[in-house]
Design goal:
Shape: globular
Largest sheet: 4 strands, antiparallel
Number of strands: 22
Distance between the termini: 38 Å
CATH class: Mainly Beta
Structural class: mainly beta
CATH superfamily: YVTN repeat-like/Quinoprotein amine dehydrogenase
Strand order of the largest sheet: 4-5-6-7
């Protein structure tokens, strides 16, 4: 976790109950970040500073920074959700510029890609599926976007309800189904990408504001959600 106000990142060992603190290097702004992810190589990644991703190697306590090329123009592109693709590259959303950024951990190179809905997409959170491809929740356009991690081709999927406000997305890797929160219309949706079939599940109260969702690891038919402004946590479950 990041501990921005105290200029550090923290880890917590669930077996020993102990914290470790990693001091934030000077000259790199605030230690906070919007989203964090664990890389298969053991490094920790997070978005931050409205322009970059940050990487921590817990074994050496070394931080590295990968800045978006567009930030060098002086206009910050934003840095929101992130995910690790099947080839080990790290992608993140730049909502203020309607761009996606990709960092290669081996070379340090960062590339940016225009979203097909440029000007109205506002990408927020994202995740990877069983193939290692990325799925991005485009908030303003209300569409989901798939990024082929090999070709980097982007494909848009529009749900039945328009301006739904896709916020976060998770993948059922066992059944290749994509779940997303439609937090502006109080729904959680499921997409079958193979046949482009959508199902939208209304939540039980208005203004639930379900922004974050997670699949129950013991039951892929149960989806947990948390509401930001509502202060509610709950789940929906598909029964036989």
């Amino acid at each position: 976790m990041n501990d921005g106000p105290n200029q550090r990142w923290l880890s917590y060992d669930t077996k020993t109950g102990k914290f470790l603190a990693f001091a934030w290097p000077k000259g790199h702004g605030n230690a906070g970040g919007n989203s964090m992810a664990l890389h298969p190589d053991g490094t920790i990644w997070a978005t931050g500073g409205n322009k970059e991703v940050r990487m921590l190697n817990p074994a050496t306590s070394e931080f590295k920074f990968f800045e978006a090329p567009s930030a060098k123009t002086g206009k910050l592109p934003g840095s929101y959700g992130l995910a690790v693709a099947g080839d080990g590259s790290v992608w993140w959303a730049e909502p203020l510029a309607d761009l996606m950024a990709r960092a290669d951990p081996a070379t340090g190179k960062v590339d940016e890609f225009k979203i097909p809905d440029t000007g109205r997409s506002y990408p927020r959170r994202m995740n990877s599926d069983g193939n290692g491809d990325l799925w991005v929740a485009n908030w303003t356009s209300g569409k989901l976007m798939r990024i082929d991690h090999k070709t980097r081709e982007m494909t848009l999927y529009e749900p039945p309800t328009q301006t739904s406000g896709h916020y976060s997305v998770v993948a059922d890797k066992q059944h290749n189904l994509i779940w997303s929160s439609e937090h502006q219309v109080d729904m959680i949706s499921r997409l079958d990408p193979k046949i482009r079939e959508w199902i939208e599940f209304p939540l039980d109260q208005a203004e639930t504001d379900a922004r974050r969702i997670e699949i129950d690891p013991t039951n892929p038919n149960r989806i947990f959600f948390s509401g930001h402004s509502s202060g509610r946590v709950g789940s929906i479950e598909l029964l036989p």
